[in-house]
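Objective 1b of the project was to move from sequence-level analysis to a structural picture of ligand recognition. The entry below was assembled by the postdoctoral researcher (A.K.) and checked by the PI before modelling. It contains the amino acid sequence of the target and the SMILES of the bound compound, zinc ion.
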Amino acid sequence: MKVFKLIILTFGLMGLVTNFVSATDQTANANFDFSVTPIAENVYSIISPSYGLPSPENKGWNSNSHFVVTDKGVLVFDTGSSELIAKGIRSAIKSVTNKPVRWVVNSHSHADHWFGNAEFANTGAEIIASARAVTIMKEDGPSTVGFFSRVTKGVTGSTRLVYPTLLLAQREKRNLGGVDVEFIFSNDAHSPGDILMWLPKQKIIFGGDVLNSDWMPIITGHGNVPNWIDTLYTVAKLNPAIVLSGHGKATTGKSVIRDADLLAAVWKLVKKGYEGGKKQDEILSQVSDKLAPKYKSLYKDFDSAIKHQVKLIHKQQQ
Ligand SMILES: [Zn+2]
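Corresponding predicted holo structure:
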């Protein structure tokens, strides 16, 4: 059962692409080069150049964090895949503001988005996530610490797991430090309990792994594709000016519509093939032939990821 869960988690994290940055320094020190990208007034991103699983080469750093500087302190969205990485994130935040980190949001239960929590809990930040995601964190977290340590050959250091304490159960609005935010549920699209964060005034959406930049949506064994499609069209209706994702650079609402249309097309074609009694390989070649002309140039990993998508969607028809 544990192995099965780890496989699900692994697929969730890697999305089949291993586009790692080249390694020059494989020592276990926290000498990360985190640069801060200004996104809008008081909103910043720390973008990982690496996509795929944590590795010795990327020092375990494979996912983005974002932060909002409010009047009363800083709100951090996702904390990276280890406590050591979160120390680098904290230093990067300090290069922008001396205000304390008051709130941390974990977009979902995959380890690369919350394993840095301990660094911020140390200084009293309130950690926010959905109740559903926290259940999965507690089930999968302990075994994933060892898994990350193995795949990075120990470079990620030791990570203490700190679970969120402010648990959300449904879509809700809050005011954090004078900034209006809205937490939106994806209805388990990429993984159970995913939340997105919307800043209505600046029209910025923080999507975790529900929203994507350069890579195809990462379908997992414990997500829900029809709900994902609905969520993407719902987010598109908000007309976001800026889309911040869990991996890759900032993008726009166009990416949200691109992903919604892609997933809807893949789902429809696989369902039709399955109901028509076609084999998975046959369905894959039909889906690729039909969708590659439009989508291959829009993603970095169309050819590899489409196989993964068809396989999982096919499984979900059974
Ligand atoms: Zn994920």
